[in-house]
Amino acid sequence: MFLAGVGDEEGRALATQLGDASAFLHADLSVAGSAEVALAECVATFGGVDALFNVAGISGRRHGDGPLHECSEEGWDATFRHNLKTMFLLSRAVLRHFLPRRRGTVVNMASVSALSPQRDYFATHAYAATKGAVISMTKAMASYYAPFGINVNAIAPGLVRTPMSRRAQGDAAILEFMKTKQPLAPDLLDPLDVARAALFLLGDEARCITGEVLKVDAGWSVS
After folding, report:
1. What is the number of structural domains in the chain?
2. What DSSP string runs through the chain?
3. What is the pTM of this model?
4. What would the pLDDT profile of 107-147 be if each residue is shown by its tens digit?
5. Pick from 57, 118, 161, 172: most CB atoms within 10 A?
6. Does 79 share its domain with 127?
7. Is 145 known to be catalytic?
8. Which domain does 100 fall in, by range?
């Protein structure tokens, strides 16, 4: 497994945890040229790429994301750069690698907020807009690249216990709300619940599935 991202310490720790069959590259994937460097490093290390998982992204709240009338330009631009431009640049590079081989898999990280918004605690409209765009791009890519043997899907998680959700993890009111909003989880989702879904979509078992958005939200969208 080849990992690339801006979280240097976290990335190296994960690569170490995964063992010899993994490598990590410290790179800002929103910067032009970084995707090609990551792809070249992966090919040099492992001989090729079989699947791409676009999971790089941020919460733009600290940059000024929020309800649209309060959202700053900095918050809007930063959220789109990290959540959508990274997906564009890396997908473009890897698709160019897949096309001559006429096979490959792409999984993109969307969010349940793009499909089932929640106004009280999660009114971050730039973030929701980027994740809606991820879904649109996923479907467009799936349609275009299916004849080339490439399948493309997305995952739309609910609120997951990750470093990006630290604000929610420390808010007793949100944790209590999650018990009814995500009734299949104690409060926040375990990251492994999302990881298992990603492994399925990235694997051979899902080779005939494309253009789908798999919600892993513990009931968020129906609660």
Report:
1. 2
2. -EEEES-HHHHHHHHHHH-TT-EEEE--TTSTTHHHHHHHHHHHHHSS-SEEEE-----GGGGT-SSTTT--HHHHHHHHIIIIIHHHHHHHHHHHHHHHHT-EEEEEE--GGGTS--TTT---HHHHHHHHHHHHHHHHHHHHHGGGTEEEEEEEE-SBSSGGGHHHHT-HHHHHHHHHHSTTSSSSBPHHHHHHHHHHHHSGGGTT--S-EEEESTTGGG-
3. 0.95
4. 999 999 999 999 999 999 999 999 999 999 999 999 999 99
5. 57
6. yes
7. no
8. 50-222
